[in-house]
Structures are given as C-alpha cells and as structure tokens.
Amino acid sequence: MYYSKKLSLLFIGSPKSGCFSVQKHLMKLDENGQTGKLSMDHKEITSKDMYYGVVGHSRAWELKEAMGENAYNQLHVIGFVRHPFDKIISSYFFNKKIKLSDTLKIKGEKRILIRKIKGVLSCIAPKILPIGIWALIFPMKTNYEYFFDKKGNRIVKYLGRTDCLNEDLLVILNNINIISVNDIPHINQSKHKTRDQYFKNAWIKKKLSKKYSQDLNLYHLIQKEMLEIH
Questions:
Q1: b/e sequence 76-105, b meaning 16+ C-beta within 10 Å
Q2: In the chain, where are the structural domains located?
Q3: Which tens digit of pLDDT belongs to each residue from 170-184?
C-alpha cells in the first residue's frame, strides 16, 4: 500500500504482484508518501482500522471503509494483477524459504493468534508437499479480493499487469497526469520456471483454473484494457 496526498494517489498492493517495485518507484515521485499508515486531513488510519489488522497489504474495501467513501473516491486508486498460477508459484517458494521461528513474530492489532497459526501452516506445508497438491489445498490471497468490494464491485479503477510492470505503470501514471519517464526496476522478480512447467498435470491445472476463475477472468480483462489504453 502507498498513499500520497500530493499526488492524490492510493496504490493497493496485492501480495506477490510486484508491490515493492511499485512502492519504491512511487516514493521517488513523492518521498513523503506513506506505506505503514495514512495521515489524512480528517483522520489518521492505522492497522487498528483495518479488518485484518494490517495496513501494508490492506484490501481496497478495507481502506475505503476506513477513509470514508467520499475521501476514497477522490483518489486515483491503482493496483497490479498477476496471473494466478504465477502468484501460486511465487507464494509456494516464498513460504518454502520462511523459517518457522519467523512465523511466530507476526505483528498486528487484530486476529494475531489466527494469523500466527496460519503462518505456521503456510510455512510447514510447502516443505513437505509438491506444488500442485499444495496449491489445491491451501488458499491464496487473490487479486480479486484486493480490488473488489464485498458485493463484487470493482473499486480499483486503474489496474496493470505485473508481467508488464514497467510499461503498464508508466501508462497508468500518464493517464492520471502524473509524469514519470524513468524505468521501474522489478525488484525481487521471480526467477522460477514457467507456469506450464510446474503445472503439467491436466487435472490439477483444470482444478486450479476453476478455483481461481475470478482471478483468471480479471487478468484477461486487464490484458484487454491495457491493450486499449496502449
């Protein structure tokens, strides 16, 4: 998450979708922008105001409720989507590297016990399960839940693609009259194999496509939107 009063900009960061790269670039445009909390004219928003107790990876609907609809609608709200299979791969290998001791250090204001239990399970499972089975069993934080409200309405207008992060972010910024000519380095970019190499089993692939159908549909929609803007 990144908020800039100066730019009237709010970036919603869906996990494993190039968030850090986007945030670092936006900080160059406004170094006074905020990531851990939002100090607005009428209120200060912290993790206590978030449903899940975390600001950094807060969902758009959480921030909209905390800010108020009027304040939220006055901002340019942007985000990035990633193909769900690529998110699964990234999440799997990320969790595989996490130390069990680190999961007990999870911080936040709400649901801390539940989050720690989930953290322990997320840490152990990829160390003992192959990626296909792990993906079928464990839920992933989807793009859809970050950019749509509880009624299924899209509330993030400007969405780009993580696999075209540099060009899509520049196009989005230009469309909202924020000039940025520098390339955006994709920090922590995945160096894994292609999704087809990890998901060769047709049955697993079909099940995952059904499980994450909303994310797949959203990804293909953003592909069309960006082609039209370009």
A1: bbbbbbbbbbbbbbbbbeebbebeeeebee
A2: 2-82+142-190+213-229
A3: 999 999 998 776 666
